[in-house]
Design brief:
With about 130 residues, this protein is mainly beta. The protein is built from no helices and 11 strands. Strands 2, 4, 5, 6, 9, 10 and 11 form a 7-stranded mixed beta sheet that branches. Strands 1-3-8-7 form a 4-stranded antiparallel beta sheet, with no helix packed on it.
Length: about 130
């Protein structure tokens, strides 16, 4: 069983940056795509970004393109989310998860494709 633990959240001013980390333990996640999600109005959680098993391919939600960068280090069993040019509307709890089903990119935006969720890390962006 995989356990995911997010960290790196905090309070930052608009325009600032944060780097979130998600460390996996229990079992390796190096064979799986990993993604980040956050709650959104009218949705349980909205897709933020995902990275394939090797780190060579990524996909982003349109509103995050150019501001957020997802990456991974399989030697450390960790996925990262670098968030730049943060806006107050980015305030949320950010969750990482393992994509257990479906194809990368074609299914990576779908919440139902993921399992092994972390507990989340709070990001607060002040105006």
């Amino acid at each position: 069983q995989v356990r995911l633990v997010e960290s790196g959240g905090g309070l930052v001013q608009a325009g600032g940056s944060l780097r979130l980390s998600c460390a996996a333990s229990g079992r390796t996640v190096s064979d799986y795509a990993l993604g980040w999600f956050r709650p959104a109005p009218g949705k349980e959680r909205e897709f933020v970004a995902a990275v394939n098993w090797s780190g060579g391919s990524t996909v982003y939600a349109d509103s995050m393109k150019g501001r957020f960068t997802i990456s991974r280090d399989n030697a450390k069993n960790t996925v990262y989310l670098q968030m730049n040019s943060l806006k107050p509307e980015d305030t949320a709890v950010y969750y990482c998860a393992r994509q257990a089903r479906g194809g990368f990119q074609s299914d990576s935006r779908r919440l139902a494709m993921y399992d092994s969720w972390g507990q989340g890390t709070q990001v607060t962006v002040s105006s």
